[in-house]
Write a structure and sequence with these properties.
The chain is of the alpha+beta class and 964 residues long.
Length: 964
């Protein structure tokens, strides 16, 4: 007896190292804290619009992923509701435990008196468009469309167990006799069951019979024969049975059990959420599971295949492959665990003294050693610590048998521990060693390293340093760069003969050592990559809070986030094993097949719920008219979406304006103080994978114009205005006509006077010039200089012809004016050989396109010669410059003569000298020209001096021009 106890004790001690950790799919809890009425939920269903309907002990609720909408009826005998049925017309039926049947219509909860049966609870069923309800001796068949009820009568003692099987309803009496309702007819099956069964379900294997308890074996009847399948724990109570997509789900007091279409147990025969009382389960249109409980509200499971092990028990930091069907797991508290991929159990292999995070794990298949790094480097074999070294290590790999390559916090080196049963010599190019006979540095500078790998085929080491990526081989040490820039890497993986490099800002790079060639993996992001795992076909990685995969053959890209069930925990490491992905997180170990669907291909739907103006509900189904001074519209809508409801983007558009984006949880749009007109409000949604809603929610409304904008008011106003204007106009017309006539006559008289004055002034200048020229010719004749007189007379003839051409024109081209000036100066230079002149014309000036007042420059030039240069004893110079500046012609006439003051003195001495008509007429003429110009002509005169002595005169003439 004692020996048996010892053996039992040893067995228990051994078994203590192996334990089954909590396993369940990752779920989001929807409870009273999230807006649910009660945590006791009896049933759950989804209608054809996408809403989730919830029957709890506080009544009926509708959920759209953001908001709850609760329904009540004052005639209810008890608030608790169950057994939800959704009809194609949008109505939702449910029942309470007092026999009442309730249904929704126009957002109200109504009592159906036609089929309600007071007394005990009898489950209702929906079959071929009809609703069936029961009591002890009557069956009611209700047509929701015609609202007609058909009755069937049965003898007393009919069982209250009625189950839908295929296209019929199976009824079992308390004595075991069976009936069916098929095509609205009651048929005796002539079948007698010795044991009463409370749950009956038709499957591909036959009719499954279940009781409320003692279901360790499942009885199945097929073709009159009975067979048994593996059942569930006999200690749990069965609340309900659901058949979804050929799978059978048993909702019990100890979790939910699943069976495939062959009645093979799912999840290894274990229950999911074994610590919860499950009342019902359903799968929504997006493929997510909704599991209702009697204590904890609703469990929303985006992916039933995404399992979490050790939930909230361990904070996993690292993963590594181990012996067949097992992987190694490191934790944040220096524990090394083994996880069995078949039994889904953990085994504690070693526990370090210091609660330090495990940073790297490696299993050496040759020496059978597990090497893991936390506060130290630990060498474990058969759960025993054989060696430890006080080094802070970030990454580890096998260099050769008995030698390990480490990345330390300050360098990269090879550790050759003496315990290794098999050991090979290190190559000569790694002979750089320290005084420690176990430690061999690679000869690189002291730098922080993050990851390291060794390619035996290429005989080289790659190390990810804090300042770049370096390669070490027998030829030396080289830095590897990508497109001329340093590579900042977080992890290196050697696979498929290539090095896969996770970077902080360049995504993932693939390096072919033999070809010394980089390629960038074409991912949809260049964000920081934390961890990577590679096989021959797929590359998986962790980036921020998402898990991604890239098929190296097909180029297919997938990503899984919290919307797909990834726990809201820190993702630490990743491992691939036979098509299954394992991820170490701070909230447990998660696993799912790489074939798991990632993209949400179910487009969201938009539904307009309600419209209010100034807080008053308006009928959105009728034409809506709002007053112009009283429009404060609020339109509420719903977007039933759950898998990524926090990432749904909702936008709205008013008429053809741009689309505006709403807040994440905002489900109403407020519009106020709109101007008169007709409006169309459109609402659309985009799911987390960029899929646009299948419909656009639309709401039409009109804003009425104020009375003063009505056509009749405007017409009256126009007519009144017309009569008033006509009356005033007729009075003022006679007066205005007379005044306008006088004004026009005065204006025309003044214009003619100005033109006459201008012609007179110009006529004064022309004879004056002719007088001077004839005097010069007379002087040459008297002096006997016939050749000069002939030359002068020829030039005078050309100048006279030019004067005649321009005498009748008010404006001439700049080219003609310059030609006239040049002819004039030629004559003056013959008369006065000591005078020289220069005419400078800017290259950009188009002389033929610019027009200026005729003879406006020549009088100024004449003054410069006559009063400034003619009286100068020595040679004189006249310089004329033409410059165009911002649609303005700038003309400067500059001489180095005796100056105006001295010229005036000389003129006063010569009392017999004729008057200078040109000098007097210039200012008067410019003043007259400016009267009819938008921009004036500016005329300035500057006397030049040097050391108090006059050195000439500078005249500036600024004429606005229009090249067009």
């Amino acid at each position: 007896m004692v020996g048996k106890k010892i053996i039992l004790l040893l067995f228990l001690m051994l078994a203590g190292a192996i334990f089954v950790s909590a396993q369940q799919p990752s779920a989001q809890i929807i409870n009273v804290e999230k807006g649910l009425r009660s945590n006791t939920v009896y049933d759950i269903a989804q209608d054809n619009r996408g809403y989730i309907w919830i029957a709890s002990d506080k009544g009926l609720s509708k959920y759209d992923g953001v908001h709850f909408y609760h329904f009540d009826n004052t005639a209810q005998i008890g608030k608790a509701l169950s057994n939800i049925i959704t009809l194609p017309n949008g109505e939702v039926y449910c029942q309470n435990f007092s026999g009442q049947i309730l249904y929704t219509k126009s957002d109200s909860l109504l009592l159906n008196h036609n089929i309600s049966a007071a007394g005990d609870y009898y489950r209702m069923y929906y079959l071929q468009g009809k609703i069936y309800t029961f009591n002890r001796d009557t069956i009611r068949c209700y047509n929701p469309i015609t609202q007609q009820t058909k009755f069937f009568h049965l003898p007393k003692l009919i069982a209250h167990i009625t189950t839908r099987v295929a296209n019929m309803l199976l009824l079992i009496k308390e004595d075991g006799s069976c009936f069916k309702i098929e095509n609205e007819k009651l048929v005796d099956l002539k079948l007698h069951l010795k044991t009463p069964f409370y749950f009956v379900q038709n499957t591909a294997q036959g009719i499954v019979l279940l009781q409320k308890t003692n279901n360790e074996k499942i009885r199945v009847i097929k073709n009159g024969m009975q067979q048994y399948f593996k059942g569930i724990s006999d200690s749990v109570f069965l609340y309900g049975v659901k058949q979804i997509e050929d799978h059978l789900y048993l909702c019990t007091s100890g979790g939910i059990y699943g069976y495939d279409n062959q009645l093979n147990p799912l999840w290894g025969g274990r229950a999911l959420y074994a610590d919860k009382r499950i009342s019902s389960v359903m799968i929504d249109a997006e493929g997510a599971y909704w599991i209702s409980t009697l204590d904890d509200g609703i469990l929303y499971v985006p992916n039933i295949q995404l399992m979490v092990y050790g939930l909230n028990e361990y904070q996993f930091t690292n993963l590594a492959p181990y012996v067949h069907n097992k992987i190694l797991c490191g934790t944040s508290k220096n524990k090394l665990l083994q996880f069995d991929l078949y039994s889904k159990t953990f085994k504690l292999l070693y526990k370090g003294q210091n609660k330090h995070e495990v940073g790297a794990i490696l299993y050496d298949s040759i020496s059978k050693y597990i090497v893991y790094c936390a506060d130290k480097i630990y060498f474990i074999r058969e759960s025993k610590l054989l060696l430890q070294r006080a080094y802070s290590v970030k990454d580890i790999c096998v260099f050769s048998p008995g030698n390990f390559l480490f990345s330390f916090s300050n360098n990269c080196c090879i550790l050759s521990p003496p315990i290794m049963p098999v050991k090979t010599a290190l190559p000569n190019w790694l002979s750089y060693s320290t005084t420690d006979n176990e430690l061999f540095f690679l000869g690189m500078e002291v730098q922080r390293t993050r990851s390291v790998c060794y390619s035996q085929e290429d005989s080289c080491v790659l190390a990810a340093y804090s300042n770049g990526l370096f390669l070490k081989n027998k030829s030396g040490i080289y830095e590897l760069k990508y497109k001329g820039s340093a590579i900042m890497s977080s992890q290196l993986k050697l696979a498929n003969g290539k090095v896969w490099i996770a970077t902080f800002n360049r995504g993932i790079l693939c390096y072919n050592i033999a070809q010394n060639k980089f390629t960038q993996v074409p991912l949809d992001t260049n964000t920081s990559i934390q961890k990577i795992a590679v096989t021959n076909e797929v590359l998986c990685y962790i980036a921020d809070d998402i898990i991604c995969s890239y098929n190296l053959i097909t180029g297919q890209f997938k990503k899984w986030s919290t919307a797909d069930g990834v726990p809201a925990a820190e993702l630490k490491d990743i491992l691939i094993d036979e098509g299954t992905l394992y991820v170490a997180t701070s909230g447990g170990l998660i696993s799912f097949p790489l074939s798991l669907k990632a993209a949400n291909d179910v487009a969201p739907k938009i539904f307009i719920l309600q419209a209010k103006n100034n807080g008053v509900i308006i009928d959105k189904n009728s034409p809506v008219f709002l007053n112009s001074d009283d429009n404060n519209l609020e339109v509420s809508f719903a977007v039933p979406s759950y898998k990524g409801n926090q990432k749904i983007v909702v936008q709205y558009q008013l008429n053809n304006d741009r689309w505006s984006t709403l807040g994440t949880a905002q489900r109403s749009i407020k519009l106020s103080h709109l101007s008169a007109g007709s409006y169309l409000l459109k609402i659309r949604a985009i799911n987390e994978d960029g899929l646009l809603s299948v419909n656009t929610g639309q709401f039409h409304f009109n804003v009425l114009a104020p009375f003063y904008q009505k056509w009749w008011f405007i017409l009256l106003l126009v007519l009144a205005t017309v009569f008033i204007v006509l009356g005033i106009s007729r009075y003022r017309t006679k007066l205005l006509v007379h005044k306008q006539k006088q004004a026009l006559e005065a204006t025309e008289l003044k214009r003619q006077l100005d033109l006459s004055t201008l012609k007179t002034l110009r006529a004064q200048m022309n004879p004056h010039f002719i007088y001077n020229a004839l005097n010069s010719i007379q002087g040459y004749v008297y002096s006997g200089e016939k050749e000069l007189a002939s030359k002068y007379l020829s030039a005078f003839s050309d100048l006279s012809r030019s004067l005649l051409d321009s005498s009748s024109a008010t404006e001439v081209s700049l080219h003609e004016e310059i030609k006239l000036i040049d002819l004039y100066l030629q004559l003056e230079c013959i008369r006065l050989p000591k005078i020289k002149y220069i005419i400078n014309i800017a290259d950009e000036i188009e002389q033929h396109m610019i027009f200026i007042p005729a003879m406006i420059i020549q009088p100024i030039v004449e003054n410069a010669i006559k009063h400034g240069l003619a009286n100068k004893p020595e040679d004189g110079l006249l310089m004329i410059n033409f410059i165009e500046q911002q649609k303005t012609l700038l003309i400067t006439i500059e001489d180095n003569g005796i100056g105006r003051k001295k010229s005036n003195e000389l003129n006063q001495r010569k009392k017999d000298k004729p008057n200078s008509y040109a000098s007097n007429a210039i200012e008067d003429r410019i003043a007259l020209l400016n009267k009819n110009r938008a921009q004036p002509i500016v005329h300035t005169i500057v006397d030049k001096h040097q050391l108090g002595v006059a050195t000439g005169t500078l005249v500036t003439l600024t004429i606005p021009i229009d090249n067009d």
